[in-house]
Amino acid sequence: MTRLVLGVRMTNELNKVGPGLRKIMGNLGWLMVDRVVRMGMGLFVGVWVARYLGPVQFGSLNFALSFIALFGTITTLGLEGIVVREVLHTPGDAHEILGTTFALRSGGGLLAVGLSIVTLRLIQGHDKQALLLVSILSLTLIFQAFDTIDSFFQSQVRSKITVWAKNSAFLVFAVVRVSLIHAKAPIWTFAAAGTGEIALGAVGLLLGYRLSRGRMSLWRSTRKRAVLLLRQSWPLLFSGMAIIIYMRLDTVMLKVMQGDLAVGLYSAATRVSEVWYFIPMAIVSSVSPAIMRVKDDPKLFYSRLSKLFSLMTMTACVIGSFVALASHAIIRILYSSGYSGAAPVLAVHVWASVFVFLGVAQSPWDLSRNLLTLSLYRTLAGAIINIAMNLYLIPRYSAMGAAIATVFSYACAGILANAFSPRTRPIFYMQLKSFIPCRFWAPQS
Q1: Which long-range contacts (CB under 8 A, 24 or more apart) does 425-434 make?
Q2: Number of domains comprising the chain
Q3: Mean pLDDT of the chain
Q4: In the list 109, 176, 217, 409, which could disulfide-bond 142, CB 3.0-4.6 Å?
């Protein structure tokens, strides 16, 4: 989401310059290539790994991945978009900005590693396999500090280099994972492959930066700059934490309350359900410039935004209907009969996509009205509702309970929360009207 919002902002700024617009659209194209490759190949290899490990072992691996993700925001510190903006506005201070960011992220990564291991010992100290997997995967939090280089490339509208670096690492370790399957390797080697992929991606970023005539030896960090960056990034830090809790805590709660089998079934379902989430980002990144350009013309702005909501709802409902009806066949074909319990979970969880699509479509409104703080509050409310519902539903309905909690909390954060503020109430009405199919085909005013 951060890259999407950033892309919209930069597109809006560069619309005034023809070559600049072509450059930013090319940059967004590379980001979409990155997303499509990762989602497509990731699903293919992920399914293969799932079939090899079986539901219980697959659940154990996904628990470790989700658990580590909960601590990832401590590494990023919400700095990504801030760094890009600061380098754009004050290019003369780039080395200080990048050096300070790298120091902050490195420190955050080390802190996150320690916190993840200590927290796991407190809640699942008896699970030696989980501790091993989390310990291996926690190293990814340190290597993520090198994403500072990615922020620099974003500021230069050169995400192509990042895509090459990270996708090369992704494809190399996709081959490694397949080789591990053929070698009948133990589960911990798949966790090591995940860490190796992030490490190789960091090496690729370093190489790309060096080939672009950048030198990390020129970077420097200062206390003053650190305070300035953190003062600006704290809302994004908490927003990131809320989003991760929102999206990953259900897996952790399933593990603690129901065990690895429930996590394996739930993860198999969500892999299929969430593979479609790149679609709203692609659509919004394409149409946002046209919407943002007319923000001073309320009638046209509302009309175009309403069309976007209708398109999102129609697309998500078509996907949801197809996946829900074919859920048993999809799970059987992709994962084998051992995962049959994931089919009803998938049939429910896929409907969260409706509210994800509508939430992404709201970003042009939030940006044009400067409502990013309200977006944080909506996310926090959704996270709290999600936790409360998981506590009630998981002990009663296991993975299905987690799916129901996800759909309901996404609906609350993506639609219902907009009704409580006068500044977002027009969006709430537009979202409700988007469920009327004929509105999409109505002529634009």
Answers
A1: 426/302, 427/362, 427/365, 430/302, 430/305, 430/306, 430/309, 431/309, 431/313, 431/358, 431/362, 433/306, 433/309, 433/310, 434/306, 434/309, 434/310, 434/312, 434/313, 434/314, 434/358
A2: 1
A3: 83
A4: 109
